[in-house]
TrEMBL record:
<dbReference type="GO" id="GO:0039694">
    <property type="term" value="P:viral RNA genome replication"/>
</dbReference>
<keyword id="KW-1133">Transmembrane helix</keyword>
<keyword id="KW-0653">Protein transport</keyword>
<dbReference type="InterPro" id="IPR003849">
    <property type="entry name" value="Preprotein_translocase_YajC"/>
</dbReference>
<feature type="region of interest" description="Disordered">
    <location>
        <begin position="89"/>
        <end position="129"/>
    </location>
</feature>
<keyword id="KW-0811">Translocation</keyword>
<comment type="similarity">
    <text>Belongs to the YajC family.</text>
</comment>
<feature type="domain" description="RdRp catalytic">
    <location>
        <begin position="1"/>
        <end position="78"/>
    </location>
</feature>
<dbReference type="InterPro" id="IPR007094">
    <property type="entry name" value="RNA-dir_pol_PSvirus"/>
</dbReference>
<dbReference type="GO" id="GO:0005886">
    <property type="term" value="C:plasma membrane"/>
</dbReference>
<feature type="compositionally biased region" description="Basic and acidic residues">
    <location>
        <begin position="98"/>
        <end position="129"/>
    </location>
</feature>
<dbReference type="GO" id="GO:0003968">
    <property type="term" value="F:RNA-directed RNA polymerase activity"/>
</dbReference>
<feature type="transmembrane region" description="Helical">
    <location>
        <begin position="6"/>
        <end position="25"/>
    </location>
</feature>
<dbReference type="Pfam" id="PF02699">
    <property type="entry name" value="YajC"/>
</dbReference>
<keyword id="KW-1003">Cell membrane</keyword>
<keyword id="KW-0813">Transport</keyword>
<protein>
    <submittedName>
        <fullName>Protein translocase subunit yajC</fullName>
    </submittedName>
</protein>
Length: 129
């Protein structure tokens, strides 16, 4: 009887591990493999966004390094792992070139910018820009 009780007490622990594997570990591995595939498929001329949010064009690839043009005539060396995603024109705000100003594309046109909630989930009022 002692061995049967030990087995039944291990079943929930084993089930918990299996659920943990399928809900957390496996999807994370898939995302990681997709990220590596994307980084290995970079080509010069690609428009990319780094993991820090910098938009740039790939100029050259040198092993694990990528040379990015962050402004006309300004090049910077980055490791491939710092490339977060390849930006396509459809993924850029407004369907055109990406906004590199860092203000989220907001323009001073007299329109209202409304924040619907604050950090606590409470409604807040809008603010004129």
């Amino acid at each position: 009887m002692g061995s049967g009780d030990a087995f039944t007490s291990l079943v929930p622990l084993i089930l918990l591990f299996v659920v943990f594997y399928f809900l957390i570990i496996r999807p994370q591995r898939k995302r990681q493999q997709e990220q590596i595939r994307m980084q290995n498929s970079l080509t010069p001329g690609s428009r990319v966004m780094t993991t820090t949010g910098l938009f740039a064009n790939v100029v050259a690839i040198d092993g694990d390094d990528v040379i990015l043009e962050i402004a006309p005539g300004v090049e910077s060396r980055w490791v491939k792992a710092a490339i977060g995603r390849v930006v396509t024109p459809a993924a850029a705000p407004g369907g055109g070139e990406s906004d590199e100003r860092g203000d989220g594309g907001a323009e001073e046109t007299g329109s209202e910018r409304v924040d619907s909630t604050d950090g606590d989930g409470k409604e807040t009022g809008g603010a004129k820009s």
